[in-house]
Amino acid sequence: MLQLPGFLKVSLLLPLIFFPAPDFTPFSNPPTGSDVKMFSPESVSDQFGNRDMAISPMGDEMFWTLQQGAQISVILYSKKEKGKWSDPVTAWFSGRWMDLEPAFSPDGKELYFASKRPVNESDTKKDVDLWVMKKENGVWSKPEHLPAPVNTEENEYYASVNRAGDIFFTRDIGAAKEDIVVCRKSGNGYSAAVSLPEEINSNGYEFNAFVDPDEKYILFTAYGRKDDIGGGDLYFSEKNASGNWMQAFHLGPKINSAGIDYCPFVSPDKKYFFFTSNRSTLKQPFSDRRSLDQIHHQLSKNGNGSDDIYWISFSALINQ
User: Fold this and answer.
1) Which of 106, 107, 176, 220 could cross-link to 209 by cystine, CB 3.0-4.6 Å?
2) Strand partners, 115
3) SS3 call for 179
């Protein structure tokens, strides 16, 4: 009797045990009450690192980042047509260079993202800059490098744009520090970057801010504060009646974890708050001894310490 290699036996059995993949329905089973839930388990939040998502104001396009450590970072894409979301693919403008952190303008006509791609094909890019694509007649333009003073020789990350076209983002400012800064729209360009006040920024790390399109509130991550319970926690601030930012407060252990919690995003309809966390469901000691196969199985699922996306009702977030 012919003895087939083990891998060939398996390959021959595959057609017999194949089951079609479930439909890609990322917004099914939404959180209720004050529950924090993993967003789209197995579809978006799978065993790989998935983070910093953006949904178009029309609710028909979604971008997010697949990132594994410092090795790879690409932007993924799905489109809703006839009530159904397409299976995720690498976004048409991504997949070659390090790309991350997509963000729509409030009118949905611009898409911003961070990238280490060269400005000119012959350049050797050393820092991360912000780029923008513009949509006309339903077609996205090629990515355009944002001009100075937005981009500098330092790293610029995580754009968030208000209705006036002002752009908030993270910038490396030296001495082991990052600040959240804003460049106000001025004519066809931007004014010089200004760090947000001490109610937001500190002497440490502040990064990855989502700013309300009407600039009423801001959500961001800070690292190293006295109330930090992990590798970076999420904070919230809003403006008072005089238009000044109030002291940011920690969002508490329902949102924050022993890992890093970052990449805040509020859906355009303001129903849901999304964030990224590398919190893990794998904790030793286990209740019993685990075999290697069992450990491999657990590591091949979400909650394994790679980034996953979570969501909660936005009203529950701000009323907690």
Assistant:
1) 220
2) 99, 129
3) strand
How far apart are alpha carbons 104 and 114 in whole angstroms? 12
Rounded-to-integer distance, Cα 173 and Cα 169, Å = 12
Domains of the chain as residue ranges with CATH: 46-318 (2.120.10)
Peptide bond connecting 22 to the previous residue in cis, omega within 30 degrees of 0: no
Tell me the whole-structure pTM to 2 decimals: 0.89
Mean pLDDT throughout 18-46?
A: 85
The contacts of residue 90 (CB under 8 Å, 6+ apart) are: 74, 75, 76, 77
User: Given this model, what pLDDT does residue 70 score?
Assistant: 82
Ramachandran bin of 129, using left for φ above 0, alpha for ψ from -120 to 50, beta for the remaining angles: beta
pLDDT digits over 5-15, tens only? Answer: 443 343 444 44
Q: Give the model's pLDDT for residue 21.
A: 57
* Token representation of residue 209: 């801010």
Task: Give the residue among 29, 26, 138 at the shortest CA–CA distance from 84.
Answer: 26
Say what the pLDDT of residue 6 is.
41
Q: Which amino acid appears at position 234 of this protein? A: L
Residue 285 burial by Cβ neighbours in a 10 Å radius (0-12, 13-18, 19+) = exposed
